[in-house]
Hints:
- By secondary structure, the protein is α+β, with helices and mostly antiparallel strands.
- 37% of the residues lie in helices and 34% in strands.
- The chain has one domain (3-160): Bifunctional nuclease domain.
- The termini are far apart.
Amino acid sequence: xxxxxxxxxxxxxxxxxxxxxxxxxxxxxxxxxxxxxxxxxxxxxxxxxxxxxxxxxxxxxxxxxxxxxxxxxxxxxxxxxxxxxxxxxxxxxxxxxxxxxxxxxxxxxxxxxxxxxxxxxxxxxxxxxxxxxxxxxxxxxxxxxxxxxxxxxxxxxxxxxxxxx
Length: 165
């Protein structure tokens, strides 16, 4: 399966469900991948995006600290699967030259990738499935797949900055 590098375009609230969304964008094209995440994970991502220091380590900071003490390096994270409307991710670690993969929710993997400056990849299979899944799932809330695509494409940086912790 081919892996395509994505960057975080932004974090926003879905105006219909009031749920946080991490919007990933293909590093080399305009392809967008919205991933709805939990409020706590969104806060963890937002804190790191905004470079906010917390007085005590948050969960993902703790994980980063544990990995550092164990001499494990996050080499990449991969949003690897989309099954039953749920995204799955893998965290790839280099532990003394051995590659170890750890199952993760994408939101946790992204929060950790931000803290470790690790690249974020999405498999081409997930991209293909998400396009059809998003269109069919959201068409009940938005009138058509085309309207969903336009909504995502027309997001501007100000919209993406409207996520409040």
